[in-house]
Each structure stands twice: as C-alpha cells, then as structure tokens.
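INFO  loader      accepted 1 record
INFO  loader      residues=205
INFO  predictor   begin
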Amino acid sequence: MKSKDYNDDLSHIRSMMERSSRFISLSGLSGIFAGLAALAGAVHVYFVFQRAGISYFQGDRNVYSESLVRELMFSGAVILAAALFSGYFFTARKSRAHNLKIWDRTTKRLLLHFSIPLITGGLFCLGLLYHQFHAFVAPCTLIFYGLALIQAERYTVTDVRYLGYCEVVLGLIAFFIPGWGLVFWAFGFGVLHIVYGIVMYKKYR
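INFO  predictor   done
INFO  writer      dumping tokens
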C-alpha cells in the first residue's frame, strides 16, 4: 500500500512539473481551422494565377509582376491572420474551461522560441521575392515553419515536433519539384494541420 501511495505521489509531482513547464492548452480545433484556412487560401491563390494567365506548374519559368506579388503577399497575410486568430480563440477557450492561464512565463518562452525561426524564415522569403526566386518561397515557408515547431516543442505538447518534422521534409522535397510548391504548401499547411488538429482534439479534449 505504501509503495502504491509513493508511486501516486511521484506521478502527481511529475504531472505538476509538466503543467508548470509546458503550455498544454493548445486546442486541436485551432489546427483544424488553420488547415481549412490554408486550403481555402491555396485554392484562392491558384485562381489568382489563372486570372493572371500564369501556369503555376511550369515552376521557375514563371515571371510574376509586382502587382501579383503584392496580391499574393496580401493573401498570405490574410491566411496567417485567420490561422493566428483561430489559434488564439480556441486555445483561450480551452484555457478558461480548464482554469489555466493563457499568458505566463511558459507562454512567453514558447512564443519566443517559436517566433525566432519563423521571423527568420519570413525575412528569408522576402529576400527570395526581392531576387525573384518565387518558386522557392513555398518550400522555404514549410521548412522554417517546421523548424519553428520543432524549436517550440520543449514548451508545449511533444506531438508538435512530429508535425514539424513532416513540414521540414515536405519543404525539402518541394525544393526539388518547384512547379508543385503550391501543392506541397497546401498539403503541409492545410491537410497536415487538419490531421494534426483532429488527433490533438481526440487526445487532449
């Protein structure tokens, strides 16, 4: 009996340490809605290319005008805003339901470690756009986003790193098939997020 009580105490202490060091209120629903937003954005971008008379699947032979690049950047910003909003909304709702703080030291560390690779990747992609290496923007977004997830894993659920690995692998593959970058992007940010969100929702609800 004493041995059982001792093990229970250790499990309780371990659980308390885990809750204090990791941000565990991430909602699977946020991943699902982020994935849906990415898929909708990818479809929109494809029709933007069609309207501009560009066959995207010709890869790096395409030439984008400045107005088209600005429209694509605006579309990307809208997709990012929708994903961030859904992430905050569903995570905050889950935190309130479990009486957990959404903004504490762990959250700050999570955002810091997540944002460094993400901001670096964003600036790198802007450099690619400036030098008109448009075909490599989609692969780079996948790679840097995956690295950001892997970097942030130490402050949230460990399952995040597996999503990060998949994003990095997809980005590396897309580098060698530049004409299909949009497809890889849609799969990475859309389909994988939806699958990840469903798994997380069932596992941590």
